Amino acid sequence: TVSTWYHVFVIIRTDTNVVDAGFDTSLTAANIPANYTVYRRIGSVRFNNQCNFADFTQDGDYFRFATGNLDVSTNDPGAS
Questions:
Q1: What per-residue confidence (pLDDT) applies to 57?
Q2: pTM of full prediction above 0.70
Q3: Cβ 46 vs Cβ 3: under 8 Å
Q4: Which residue, 6, 15, 21, 23, shows the most beta carbons closer than 10 Å to its own?
Q5: What is the Cα–Cα distance from 8 to 41, expressed in whole angstroms?
Q6: How far apart are CA 58 and CA 33, in angstroms?
Q7: Would you tell me how many other CB atoms lie within 10 Å of the CB of residue 22?
Q8: Residue in 63, 54, 15 with CA at minimum distance from that of residue 35
Q9: pLDDT tens digits, residue range 7-58?
Q10: pLDDT recorded at residue 4
Q11: Are 46 and 59 in contact (CB under 8 A)?
């Protein structure tokens, strides 16, 4: 989906010791497959307006997007 954040998780099935990775729109891994009971978020990525993952670089735990995101667009922001 356009402009949607996806969180990347490492997931583990403790009954078979299978390790995998997956994407979820939930920060709490609410949509991971059944029987995967252990998970850890390893990062987040975002689809841009062209339905592609937005370009970024990673240095350790630091993610930097190639272009910034416009949060506010107004000609008259008011006094507050």
A1: 81
A2: no
A3: yes
A4: 6
A5: 6
A6: 27
A7: 16
A8: 15
A9: 999 999 999 999 999 999 999 999 999 999 999 998 888 877 666 777 778 7
A10: 82
A11: no
